[in-house]
Amino acid sequence: MAILLGLDTGGTFTDAVLLDDEAQRVVAKAKSLTTRPDLSLGIGRAIDAVLAQAPDIAPAEIALVSVSTTLATNALVEGQGDRAALVLIGFDAAISRRDNLAEALGDAPLIELSGGHTHAGAEAAPFDPEALAEALDALPGEIAALAVAAQFATRNPAHEIAARELIRARRGLPVTCSHELSAGLNGPRRALTALLNARLVSMIDRLVTACDRHLAARAISAPLMVVRGDGALVSSALVRERPIETILSGPAASAAGAAWLTWLDTALVSDIGGTTTDVCLLRDGKPAIDPDGARVGGWRTMVEAVAMRTTGLGGDSEVQVGDGLDGALTLGPRRVLPLALAATQFPDLVHAMLDDALTRIPAPDDTWQLAVPLFRALPPDLPPESRDAQIATRLLDGPARVAALLRSRIDAPALTRLVRRGLVQMTGPTPSDAAHVLGLQTGWDARASEKALTLLARRRAGNGQPLAPDAAAMAQRIVDRLTAQSATCLLEAALAEDPRDWPLGPDTLARHPLMQAGLDRAPGLVRIAARLDVPVIALGASAGCYYPAVGRRLGCEAVVPDHAGVANAVGAVVGQVSMSVEGVITFPAPGEIIAHLESGPGRGTDADEALALLQADLTRRATERAARAGLDAPRISIVREDTGAQIEGRDMPVETRLRVTASGRPRLGTTPGTAPATA
Questions:
Q1: How many other C-beta atoms are found inside a 10 Å radius of the C-beta of residue 30?
Q2: Are the beta carbons of 234 and 208 closer than 8 angstroms?
Q3: Cβ contacts of residue 525 below 8 Å, gap of 6+?
Q4: Which of 531, 505, 535 is nearest to 517 (CA)?
Q5: Sequence-ordered list of residues with C-beta below 8 angstroms from that of 189, at least 6 positions apart, any chain
Q6: Helices then strands, each counted (H, E), the chain
């Protein structure tokens, strides 16, 4: 009997399952709260809990451990991550204005250098190591990683490699090169992808280290794998270098888990977590891959991932009240700590705060908000004299009321920066609190939820009336709003995948008044009907609370399978290793052929010889990556795509693209060798 241990570390919960690989069944499952900043606590508790559920299974029987995570996805959605610098080589000054690169960069340092290559892989200008060395010496101390992107690096990566070696030698920091993440030519998007990757390196490193530490403590020596955004498994050593490939890792695992748990071939999979709702279409039992690259938190990356639509909507979403006459509610995208959960961790503080606020009519929001530090010591990258450090110092003793924490107007932006960096979390009423008030969910402190929603209900809308008569009515308004926003998410995904050529985009169509009228089924002179024509597979710990109502609104079957609350952890161990490498042959002039190899351009005049060179180079690289990812004897598949043009009535080749994939089930039973991180 081969036992597989699946783990999923989400924004709120860490899930664990034990699967019998031969019998294809779940043996045991468990949950634990995700603990930040020390992830090892939540991971360890989840592992311990699931092992306790199956006392007959010895640690030595576990043949594979695999982890999926929403941490990278949530970090991009919430704008968190380490501060990273970007090195651009050979690009014009306008590059930062394309593909939201300037917005992603923010106030992080940008180093622009001469160099880069042409489309054919020839050097466009010499690389300037002296200028890079000078810029590196001037970087602020809080920079935790660097990203490097050079013009046409996918045609010739020499300048990115040279910059990487210099950065490592001079600063000793993790470096992400854009050519290692994508073979695409879109320079601005490659730079954006590399920058986001650099920001995530330490976060994923902490996750992997936490897993390694506890597995060793429990004498589990099985290989540790991580789920990529396309659903494939890779070794933990490899994912340390390329953490951005784990964006949409949790959703990819949920799609695999949905197919495994329901055996449905066609359905919309909707996974609601604490921070996000992730929706994808399952077709022929498999999720489609997004041909344009993963899109998360407003960023369009060049990372291969499932065609997933991720929205900042979850059980822990912040409840925002609009300024209009009716005080319309909006949920998300920011995640806050539910009062019900906060009260289980800090009961005296939370209840004293809420009871005090209940004596005030009306109570300002900041009188019943807590700031909860996610650090135990002052973060070393905060300058001691900064306002951020002053706020952080006030939180060293633990959570504090926001009203007491903010002593001047300039304190508020500093607290906001700490929240964005993931160092502090705010409390607030959430759908999870609403579910506790309505009895849809249990496990946390429902009394705290009722007090919080009583306070929220007292708030005045623009018409001067309270938002709701009592806590229960306020809770129902929040749940109804989550139902409506969830239905819109599902409609957007369905319209995006629908084969018809709609005149408007899926976002516009899903929110169109006629569409909403059809879902409302309201009577009128014109009757409009709208429904979803495929079932919805609802996953997540809270799916059973919300999705029966979502299914009714959409007029479709809402399937909440057994083990829906740990579907990500199930999906984490049912996938395969799959490592793909792409390369091209170009024909820049009659009689001239260039095979763009890892070592640089290989020029010749024979197309078959160039094709053989490229295929051998890509096969070697894919096989090496598969071995590092935990696969010993991969299956090799090759896809060829030829592009041509007609010139003066003659068919002329322009480009031949090869994609070589090494795939198969990961090795079981022995821990793979680790490799030095090169990110």
A1: 21
A2: no
A3: none
A4: 531
A5: 99, 293, 300, 301, 302
A6: 21, 29
Give the full edge-to-edge strand order of the sheet including 370-373. 337-338, 424-428, 370-373, 400-401
Task: Supply the DSSP symbol for 667.
Answer: P
For residues 67 and 233, what is the distance between their CA atoms, to the nearest angstrom?
A: 9
Q: Who has greater pLDDT, 74 or 543?
A: 543
Token pair of 353 as six digits: 């705060």
Q: Which amino acid is at 534?
A: V
Q: How many CB atoms lie within 10 A of CB 638?
A: 12
508 in helix, strand or coil? Answer: helix
β-pairing, 84-89 vs 110-113, is: parallel
State residue 76 phi and psi, 5-degree precision. -70, -40
CB 7 within 8 A of CB 31: no
Cα distance between residue 418 and residue 433, in whole Å: 24
Q: Cα-flanking dihedrals φ and ψ of residue 401, to 5°?
A: -65, 140
The set of residues, in sequence order, having a beta carbon less than 8 Å from that of 626 and lying 6+ positions away, is: 577, 579, 634, 662, 663, 664
The position carrying tokens 């659903």 is: 231
Give the whole-angstrom CA distance, residue 634 versus residue 631: 6
CB-based burial of residue 222 (10 Å sphere; 0-12 exposed, 13-18 middle, 19+ buried)? buried
- For 24, the 3-state DSSP assignment is coil
The 8-class DSSP code of residue 561 comes to -
Token output for 482: 């989550």
Chain position carrying tokens 């897993």: 211
Phi, psi of 324 (to 5 degrees): -70, 180
Dmax (CA) for the chain in angstroms is 85
What is the rounded distance in angstroms from the CA atom of residue 415 to the CA atom of residue 400? Answer: 12
pTM for the structure as a whole: 0.72
Cβ pair 292, 300 in contact under 8 A: yes
Partners of 362 in the β-ladder: none
Query: Distance between alpha carbon 231 and the CA centroid of its chain, in Å?
Result: 13
Tell me which DSSP letter residue 570 carries: H
What is the token pair recorded at 352? Answer: 């004293």
Rounded CA gap, 303 and 305, in Å? 6
Mode of pairing for the β-strands spanning 337-338 and 424-428? parallel
Burial class (CB in 10 A: 0-12, 13-18, 19+), 577: buried
Both tokens assigned to 221: 């020596």
Classify the C-alpha dihedral 38-164-121-606 as positive or negative: negative
pLDDT tens-digit profile of 92-139? 877 766 767 888 888 889 999 999 999 888 899 999 999 999 999 999
Question: What is the chain's mean pLDDT, rounded?
Answer: 88
Which parts of 25-93 are beta strand (E)? 25-33, 62-69, 84-89
- Asked whether residue 677 carries a pLDDT value surpassing 70, the answer given is no
Residue 670, beta-bridge partner list? none
Contact 9, 69 (CB under 8 A): yes
